[in-house]
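name: query_chain
kind: protein
chains: 1
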Amino acid sequence: MRLIGLGAKCVLRGLVFATLALLLVLAGARMQEPVPGSPFFRLLRDPRVREVQGAAFLVRVRHPGGERAGTGIAVAEGFLLTAFHLLGDPGTGEITAEEILISRPHTEWKEEIPAEVEDVIPPVDLAVLKFEPLGEVPSLSFGDPSRLQPGEMVYLIGHEFLPGGLAVIYPRDGEFTGELGGNFLAIFPPVARGFSGGGVFNSRHELVGIISRNFVVLETFREGGRIYRVERQGAAAVKIDRCPATICRK
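structure:
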């Protein structure tokens, strides 16, 4: 009788552990699902976000030492903005690109066509590419990046829509000085590979920045007589508030 009692207890204990494990797995799965009504979920359902995505291009650049790939955002017929470092060295301003090819892999237009450099602004890692239009792209509106408040929600558009092509980020403009000050927005979290040259849009779907690169900032502060060092990661985006004069002459 005692052996049977011990066996029953072991079986019962095993069932309890199995049930708890199943509940934890289910809870974890629910935590990873978008919450209905959350900002991310609303963006996924917003048709305007899909429309804006139509302005994103894949930019593939061949250099003597290899290939670089990123994103470009069409801001006028036959012109797009992208990150200069895809084309050359921002430090020297030298263009090393031997061939520039663009495409729209998220649409029916997947053919690569050549593009050429129209204008560059190396100090802020910005470039304008010119290409022969092969299809319609949406007409983008420009917002005012200086009106963004710390904690305000924005989103990213890259050459891929999902996975990774859509994100919710938080600008912390003005928190950093030096190379990130003045012309740049500091946004969180860091961007995925291939988002260089992608667009930053506010909640009104207006373009407010072009993504440059990820960064790491080491901050030091004192508390309770002790010194702490915190590593903060994010991405820098050059502020955009209008169509460049070189391509949108009035």
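note: DSSP finds three helices and 15 strands in the chain.
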